[in-house]
Amino acid sequence: MIFEERQVEKNNFLSRAIFIFVLFSFSFLVVLLQVFSLQVSSYSAYELAALNNKNYSVPIQPLRGEIFDRNGHVIVRNMKTFDLITQPHSIDDAESFLQLIKPVIHLTELEANQYLENFKEKAFVNKELVLKKNLSTEEIARFGVRRFMFKNAFIGERYRRMSDYPEIFSHVLGYTSRAEDQYDSLSDIPRSHWEDAELVYTNGLIEGITGLEQTYNQMLSGTYGKRVYEINARGRLGETLEDEPSVPGEDIHTHLDISAQMSASKAFGSRKGGVVAIDLESGGINVLFSAPSYSINKLANGMTVADFQGLITNPSKPFFNRALQGRYPPASTIKPAIAMFGLTNKLVGWEEEIDDPGFFTLPENGRIYRGWKKGGHKNVNLKKALLVSSNTYFFKLAYQSDMQELASYLASFGFGTQVCGDCFDEDGAFLPTPDWKYNNLNIPWFTGDTVNIGVGQGYLVATPMQLANYASILANKGRALTPSIAQSVLSDAVKQNNYQVSLGKKDWINLHDALTGVIESDLGTARSIRDLKNFKVAGKSGTAELVSLDSKEAYQDVRGTELLRDHSIIIAFGPMPNPKYAVSVVVENGESGGAVAGPVAIKVLKSLLNEQ
Amino acid sequence: MNNKLTKIYFDPYLFFSICLLSILGLVFLYSASNADLSIVLRQSAYVLFGFLIMLAASQPDPDLFRRTSFLFLVFAVLLLGITFLFGPEINGAQRWVRMGPVSFQSSEFLKLALPIFLASFLCDKKLPIQTREVGITLIIIFLAFSLVARQPDLGTGLIVALSGIFVLFLSGLSWSFIGGAFVLLVISSPLIWNVLLEPFQRQRIATLFNPESDPFGAGWNIIQSKIAIGSGGIFGKGFGQGSQTQLNFLPETKTDFIFSVIGEEFGFIGVFLLLSIYFFILMRCLYLALTARDRFCRLVIGGLSLTFAANLIINLCMVVGLLPVVGMPLPFISKGGSSLMSLFFAFGIITSMATHKKFLPQ
What we know:
By secondary structure, chain A is α+β, with helices and mostly antiparallel strands. Helix content of chain A is 38%, strand content 18%. In chain A, the strands form 6 sheets. In chain A, strands 2, 3, 4, 5 and 10 form a 5-stranded mixed β-sheet that branches. In chain A, strands 12-11-19-18-17 form a 5-stranded antiparallel β-sheet. A 3-stranded antiparallel β-sheet of chain A has the order 1-8-9.
C-alpha cells in the first residue's frame, strides 16, 4: 500500500473506531443510569422487596384472658398441658428417632404416621413439629430423665381452654373454637404466614363463638405478637431477627356467682327451662342458667362427630339458650305491671272491690274468660287480686285499658326489647300492639286480645332475662338498671336502658306488701315455698298455658302429653323489705308456677344470700 | 538484537487494570459463593494460569498471528466438531470438550480465531472493501455463528458473530451496506422471532418486558437481580452482607449474576468504580488500536477489545434488566475457566499487537 492509501485507511479506521467506542461508552452510560435508577431512585422499593424476601414474620398467639365469678373464683381458665415437640432438621432419620422414643412416649399408629408424613417438609424448612399432644405425667417424667438422648426434642407448654364447671355455665360463657386466621389483626404479616403462627393453644388459633367468650372476644383475645425469622430462598428458617411478644388478653370479672349457678342447676334437675338472677344494686347478672346444657370443655377442645350430632339432634335442644331466647307467656307474673298501669291511670284503687265469680264476660259479644279457680274469689280488691291471682280482676282491668297505652307502659319494663347489656344473642321476645296485629295478621285488635294480655297470655311473650329485669324494676321501685354479666363492661358492648317506671310512694309500699303476701301470707298462691327459707320474699307466680282450653277437665286430657303441659313461672325478689336480688324462673311444662318454679327461685336466692 | 530477545512485551496499563479486576473478582467470588474458599482457590489458579497465558501470548510478533490465523481458525472449528461428536450433553446443550483432565467450552476459541482470521483476510484489501470480500466475510461469520448457535448457545454465537462484524466494520465496510443490513434486520425480525428462536428464548425476551407475569418462573432471575442491585443502595450492604446473595434469592451468583452481588454488597459506588476500570481498559484499547503499527494490528485490537466490550455490556444489560437473560459471564469476574482463559489470551494478543513496533514504514 502506498503512503496516501495507508493514511486514508488509518483515518477511516480512526473515525470508525471512535464511532463504535462512543457507541459502547453510551451503553456504559445507559447501564450506569439503570443502576442509578435501581439503587438510588427506586432504592426504598427494592430495599423493601429484599426485606420481604428474607424476613419471614409469623404471628405469636396471645394467651386468652380468664373469666372469674364475683367472688374471684375462676370459671374458665387456661389449663396448661404438655406436648412433645421435635426439631426435624436436627433429626437424621425419622424412623429410628421414633423407635428410640417409643419406649418413652406412648404413640398411636396414627400419631406416628402423621409425624412421618410431615417430617420431611418441616425438616427442610427448619420448623418445629409436634410429635404428641397432651403428655401424661408419667411420660413427662420418663422423658425428663432421658432428655440427654433427645437433644432434638423438648417438652413445650400448650394450653387448653377449660372450665371446672363445664355444664352449668355453657350458655352464659359460651365456648371458643378454631378461628380461621386473625389476618385483619396484623396487617404487616402476610396471610399465608398464619399457618406458621406460633401457637399457645393446643387447638391452634381460637376465638369466642358464643356467650361471653364472643361478646368480649376482643378484650379476652389480647394482642398478637410477632416473630421475624430470616428465611432463605428455599423457605428454610434461620435466625430470629425480631421478637415482639404477644400481649395476653384481659381477664373478665363477672357478676356471676358459681354457687348460685350451681344451686340453680341442681334445683332444675333434669327439667328444661331458664333462670336469671340480678343484683339489685348493680344490675349485675348473678345467675344465667339454661337447661338442658352441654359441655363447653368438649366443644372447645374437640368432640367426636357423633357426640356433636347427638347434641344437635337432641329434641331438648341443649344449644338453645332458654334464659335469653326462650319465649314464654309471662302469665300471671305480668299482673303487677297491669296493676301499676291501672293505678297510674286511675282505673283502679287499692280499696275498690269487685266481685269475682270465677269468670269475666266480655260485654261486646258475651264471650267468657275463665279464672283458674272455679267459683272465683268472691269480693276482691287489688291486693287480694294479686295474692290469689284473680284472673277476673285483671281481665276487667285490662278490658278498661287502652292497648296502645298499655303496650308502651309494658315496654318501659323492657318487654319486647333486649334488656341485657352484654348478653350474646339475646332475644327481644315480643310485645304486641294493635298496629302490629293489623299490619301483620290483617285483623284488627279486639278488646278480647287486651283482656288476654291482662293475665299475661295471648300474643305477649317474654324471656326469663326480661322477666328478671322486670322483677328487678319492681324490686327497685321503678329504677331500671342495665343488667350485665361483666363487672367493668366495655362501653361499646353495653346497650344502656334509659327507662324509669314511676309510681306513688304509697303504691310501691302496697305493691311490695301484696307481692310479699303472695309467698308469705296464707292466701298467697306461692305460699307452698314460704317455709323453705328464713327470710321474706316477694314474688308472683304464673302458669303459662300452651293450649287454650275452656275447662279444667279438658286440660286433664292435654296433660298426658308432657310437652303440652303448662310452663311454670315465677318472679321473686328478696329479702324483703329491702331486697338485694331479683330472680326469674321458667320451668318448661312444669305446671304450677309456685310449686315448681318457686323452689328453684328460693334456692337461688338463698345461695346468693349465703343462706343454706 | 540481543536487547530485543530479552525484552518482555507488556502494557502496564492493561496489565495492572486486569490484575485489579481479577483480584476484585476473587474477592466478589468469595462472597458470591457463600464464603466457599475452595471455589476461590480454584479460580485463583485459573487467574494465575491466565496471566501466564496472557504474558506468553504477548511475546510473539503480530506477524506470527497473522500467518497462523487460518490454522487457528481451522483448529477452532475442529474443536467445535469434536464437541458436536463427542461432547457431553449438559442441560440439553453440547458446549464442552474434554481433553484429558481439562474440559473447556470450545466456542471460546472461535471468539478469538474468527476476528484474527478476518483481520488478516481484510488487512490488505483496498478501500472501500469490495462486495465479493464482504460476501466471503459474511459467509464465514454466518458459518461460525451457526456452528456455535446449534450447540445450542445463542449468546456465545452472537458474540462470535459480533466479533467478526466488528472487524468487518472497522476495516472499512461501506455505510450504505451497513444501513441496508440494518433495514434488512428490522424487516426480518418477525421471521427471526418466529422461526429461528427456540420457545425458551422467546420466553426469555417476553419475560424481560414483563417479569412480573411469572415471578416464580421465568421472571424470577430478573426480579431477584433487580432487587439485589436496587437494595444495595449507594453504599451497599457490605461484604458478605447481601441478603439476596447470601440467602440464595439471587440465582447464578458465581457466574452470570455476579454483578448483582457487587451491586448489592458494594452499592452504586462499587458499581461505579468497577465500571470505571472496565471503561479505562476499553479506552486504553482504543488508544492502542489507534497507535498500533499496522492495519492488521489495528483490526485485531479493535475486534478483540470490542468483543470483550460487547460481552461485558450484554452481561451488564442482562443483570440490570435491559436485555433478556442469555448465558454470558462478567469478564474477569465470573467464575469459570474457559472464558477466563480466552479473555487472557485475547488481551495477550492485544498486548502483542500493541507493543511490537516497527520503526520503519512498511
